[in-house]
Each structure stands twice: as C-alpha cells, then as structure tokens.
Amino acid sequence: MVGSKPFNLTLYKLAIKHASVAEESINGMKISNERLEYLGDAVLGAVVAEFLFIKYPYRDEGFLTETRSRMVNREALNQIAIKIGLSKIISEEYKGKNLSAHKSLYGDALEAMVGAIYLDRDFHFCKKFILKRIIIHFDLDNIISTTTNFKSKIIEWGQRENAEIDFKTISVNGEQRFKEFIVELHVSGKLLAEGKGATKKKAEQEAAKNACEILKIAV
Questions:
Q1: Which of 16, 46, 160, 190 is the most buried (most CB within 10 A)?
Q2: 41 is known as an active-site residue
C-alpha cells in the first residue's frame, strides 16, 4: 500500500488505532492515532495545495481553497481509504469491535497513515505516496463542476441536531464597488464561525463552509 517496506512498523500500527479502540496509558491518556492524524492532515493539505497551485496557474485563491477543501474532506478520504485497502486492514485488526458508528474512521486513519509515512520515510517519500496513491483517485473535473451549498448543509445539520442556526451580518466595509461583508454564524446562540465576502451571500457561504469544517460535516 505504501510502496515500500516500512522502517518503523509501530507508527503504522498506531495510525489505524482509533480512539474508540485505544488502550489507556499509565497516565490515563489514550494511545490513539489522533496525533498522527493531526500531522497527516497538515502534510496532506500542503501537498494538495502545491498540486493545485501548479495544475491551475491562472485560478484565484478562492478556487484553490475551495477545491482543496473538497479534496481533503472526511467523506472523500473515507472513500479513498476503502479504495486503497486501508479499510480492510482496520476491519481485520479490530474484528468483533463495533466501528460502524464512527463515520470518519477510515478517512481519519488515512490522514494518520500520511503522518506515519512522513515520520517513517521523510517528506519527499510521503509526497510521492500522496500524489500516486491518494490524489490519483480524485475526479477533479467533477469536483470543480459540482458546487457545494454550504449554507444548506449547515441548516440541514441544524435541523437534524435540533440546533438553531443564525447568520448575523456584523459589518459592511468599503465603497459601493468594493464592499466586504463580514458575517458570523451562531449555533444555538453561540458563535461558531465567521465568513467574509464581496456580497452577503458569499460571506454567509464562507461562514457556513468554515462551520462545516469545524463540525466535520461531510460535503
């Protein structure tokens, strides 16, 4: 799966250890893949960002950011983890354990795997793994042509969770032609995310997008 024999197999075993099946250490903390997931998320994001920057030299920052976020969201990574066989390893390792309740289990493990490869082999090897084993599975044309209505996603989530979703326009800066709207998104009265945009609608979409990322809502 990785493309070469691991040097430190312990890292890879840790990468597939979800917090729900992790044993507690002596000091009471669970030994799980969460730290590796954090590292892998950063490395994956950097490689995808560079890939898109080179592939689309004339597209703006908004396009690159949106495309990257859609490539590295949990649902997309879940599907790739299944395609490359990581899900089979996890299922075999924790046979008899109820892992079905954790929807992002495989995607989280894939990010942790990236972190493990980075520590085990170095950045250049890890970058090659991401390009050849992860990015190759993305249908970029479909990702680009399909727009996501983040506001609808967060409202649907609020309805499911019985949470009140409220968008508040905090300020409008600039002149008529170059306005910047700043919108806050509150969930049940508490500030969750903020968005900026040239229109109120765009600012709301940005706030909703940030909220989806915070709440790990699949888009």
A1: 16
A2: yes
